[in-house]
Specification:
- The complex is a heterodimer of chains A (250) and B (431).
- Chain A has 250 residues and is α/β, with parallel strands linked by helices.
- Chain A has eight helices and ten strands.
- Chain A has a six-stranded mixed β-sheet with strand order 6-7-8-3-9-10, with helices on both faces.
- The radius of gyration of chain A is 18 Å and the shape is globular.
- Chain B is globular.
- The chains are: A alpha/beta (250), B mainly alpha (431).
Chain lengths: 250, 431
């Protein structure tokens, strides 16, 4: 197989003596969607926050395109074109959509002042693609609906040419229509060759959207399977019992 | 997926304030302030809104208003600074000792040397910024709550100031230095008009360049009449303010003394007006600079983002710890600037200078619409808040309200202002 886009090797991190992630290895190829499954507290989000730079691992190594990557903070992760859509969306509620989209990467005028008009123009363009119904460009995002807020968070991840996209329960707060939109988006990004880590609770959704699934329990990796080779029940068994269905390591 | 790069913008019926794109909350505050002034003017039979009193009011407001500008950023980032009055005292003491003792006695600059005032002011600003940065480091990097750090700071810096001067009043201060005090340093009629016209042109240029930049991206812009109304309002209020200050004539006795000091004789019927005080000019410069910083620089954007959602700011790669240091360093520098104005106005450094200023400054910022929950606040709001507080206080004194009642009223106004703010935000659905 070709060099993986991302390889996280033997990752561990503890918080106050509790091993949140315990020697876990996962990988991701271009154009692939890998689901991360597990109960609350299984360590999915913690694992992925080491990739997005929010946490620094105690041990383990990350390789991007086969080369060892140094990721100590979110800025580092962005340099490797890793973008994250957090479960909490990580939006500054008091700022408008454009300010959130460009937060930390503002467009500036030749004088070094932030160029709000240019940023709004770019935001209108990408929103026209992602969510054509989006109109509230000058309102603070606190005034937006759940779906609109979600599309701001997604736009932020997509706008900056992500190669690696992390989606932490992207549909948890959405209605059926918006969930469908996110599913379409995932297919589209996949076709563009972007690798996606999808954290989700919904086994059915993972079966539909993902190529492979890695299941975690109590900070440890139960196993990684090809979604085609397993049933919903097999995955549930891995999540609940921590039991590998049959030895089909990908 | 549709490819719509330009989307139709829904047109709704808008009221006047919306068409002018005026902040209704600011409008309410200005309205309250105008009513307050008119009421005092009525009760005092026209003594409140005289050029003389307007001049005094603005001069008295400057010190608190400068610090309130910095307090906006502190509160926006979900912190508080209880040490500003004490820090002002320390900076004032440092500057007083520098100009009356260290420079003349140790470095041999004779009293009245033109370099004394600038050196003293720079020493003060650096002192304030370093102390502020230190407190910011304790808060940002060592994660001690701002309330505790600055409560400690209140005790420490108030008494560092005392120790430096052994509690003595230090004065008289340097002549040039005292020009920042208000009455002793004004721009005079001609310069004031020039400043007023330049400010007006700058305000109008800013409005039109904003319109051009919006139009160049095809965004909706205000109708022309609204643009002209706003430009007219800006010009009217700036030039009107200058006109009032230029109408306050220097008393004849004082003019005579000025002429005598120069060894000349005052011609008969000679008059001269004060014009814009240098201290007010400093406040205007600070306000413009910090407004640009808040709205048009990355630093300002990060301050507001951090106040709105510290975790999101952190995940966007913003160094929120260093940001805290910067915000408190700025606050410290502004305390020093206020110390220049406050001690120059008194012509001396006194041991109790700036006492209880922390409460006035916080109250001004909060009355001006800064939300203690973070993420919201404006510089012009804080200045207006300071102006409202000062007007209340001096208006009541003029009317003859007993001192205890003055503070009772100010306290009630503070709480009522926040209540009105909460109700307003619920009604309008704003954050």
């Amino acid at each position: 197989m070709a060099t993986p886009l991302v390889e996280m090797r033997d990752m561990s991190i503890s918080f106050g003596g509790i091993k949140a992630v315990d020697h876990v290895s996962v990988d991701l190829h271009p154009g692939e969607v890998v689901g991360l499954l597990g109960h609350n507290g299984a360590g999915k989000s913690t694992l992925i926050k080491m990739l997005s730079g929010a946490y620094t691992p105690d041990s383990g190594q990350i390789f991007i395109n086969g080369e060892k990557a140094d990721i100590h903070n979110p800025r580092d992760a962005r340099r490797y074109n890793i973008e994250t859509i957090y479960q909490t969306l990580a939006l500054a509620d008091n700022l408008d959509a454009a300010s959130n989209l460009f937060l930390g990467r503002e467009l500036v005028t030749p004088l070094g002042l932030v160029d709000d008009a240019a940023m709004e123009a770019e935001t209108r363009k990408i929103m026209g693609r992602l969510n054509p119904n989006f109109q509230k460009f000058s309102a603070p995002v606190s005034a937006l609906s759940g779906g609109q807020r979600q599309s701001v968070a997604i736009a932020r991840a997509v706008y900056f040419n992500a190669r690696i996209l992390i989606m932490d329960e992207p549909t948890a707060a959405l209605g059926p229509h918006e969930t469908q939109m996110v599913a379409e988006l995932i297919h589209q990004l996949k076709a563009e060759g972007i690798g996606i880590f999808l954290i989700d609770h919904d086994v059915h959704q993972v079966m539909n959207l993902c190529d492979r699934a890695s299941v975690m329990k109590n900070g440890e990796l139960v196993g990684t399977v090809n979604v085609k080779d397993v049933t919903d029940d097999d995955l549930l068994g891995m999540i609940i019992l921590g039991k590998h269905p049959h030895e089909t390591a990908a | 997926m549709t490819d719509t790069t330009s989307q139709p913008i829904p047109s709704q019926r808008k009221n006047l304030a919306q068409q002018l794109e005026l902040d209704t909350r600011l409008l309410g505050m200005v309205g309250a302030f105008v009513i307050l002034c008119l009421a005092f003017n009525f009760v005092t039979e026209g003594r409140f809104l005289t050029p003389r009193n307007v001049f005094n009011l603005t001069v008295q407001t400057v010190s608190v208003a400068i610090m309130a500008c910095g307090m906006v950023f502190v509160i926006v980032t979900r912190n508080i600074d209880l040490s500003v009055g004490a820090l002002l005292a320390t900076c004032s003491a440092v500057m007083a000792v520098t100009q009356t003792d260290i420079l003349p006695n140790m470095l041999g600059l004779e009293l009245g040397h033109p370099a004394i005032a600038p050196i003293a002011i720079i020493v003060g600003l650096v002192t304030g910024a370093i102390i502020g940065a230190f407190q910011g480091w304790l808060i940002g990097y060592l994660t001690i709550p701002a309330f505790i750090v600055t409560l400690g700071g209140l005790l420490v810096w108030r008494n560092v100031g005392w120790y430096l001067t052994r509690g003595q009043t230090i004065g008289p201060l340097d002549e040039t230095f005292m020009a920042f005090g208000g009455t002793n340093g004004t721009l005079g009629v001609t310069l004031s008009w020039i400043v007023g016209v330049l400010l007006t042109l700058a305000a109008i240029a800013a409005m039109w360049s904003g319109r051009r930049s919006k139009a160049s991206h095809g965004f909706p812009v205000k109708p022309m009449w609204a643009e002209f109304t706003m430009s007219g309002l800006a010009a009217g209020s700036i030039l009107g303010f200058i006109w009032i200050l230029n109408s306050y004539e220097i008393p004849t006795r004082r003019l005579q003394r000025l002429f005598e000091a120069r060894g000349e004789i005052m011609p008969d019927g000679y008059t001269e007006a004060y014009g814009l005080p240098i201290s007010v000019f400093v406040l205007i410069a600070v306000a413009i600079g910090l407004t640009i910083m808040a709205q048009r620089t990355r630093l300002g954007r990060y301050i507001f983002a951090t106040g709105g959602n510290p975790d999101a700011a952190e995940l966007s790669g913003i160094n929120t710890r260093l940001l805290t240091v910067k915000v408190f360093a700025l606050m410290g520098g502004l305390c020093a600037l206020s110390a220049v104005v406050a001690s120059a106005r008194l012509a001396n450094h006194t041991n109790d200078i700036g006492t209880l200023d922390e409460l006035r400054v916080i109250a001004a910022a909060v009355i001006g619409g800064t939300a203690l929950s973070g993420g919201i606040g404006t510089i012009h709001g804080a200045i207006l808040g300071a102006l409202i507080m000062q007007s209340l206080q001096s208006g009541m004194a003029m009317v003859g309200v007993d001192a205890p009642f003055q503070n009772i009223v100010v306290g009630i106004v503070l709480v009522a202002a926040v209540l009105i703010d909460i109700i307003y935000r619920k009604r309008t659905g704003a954050h």
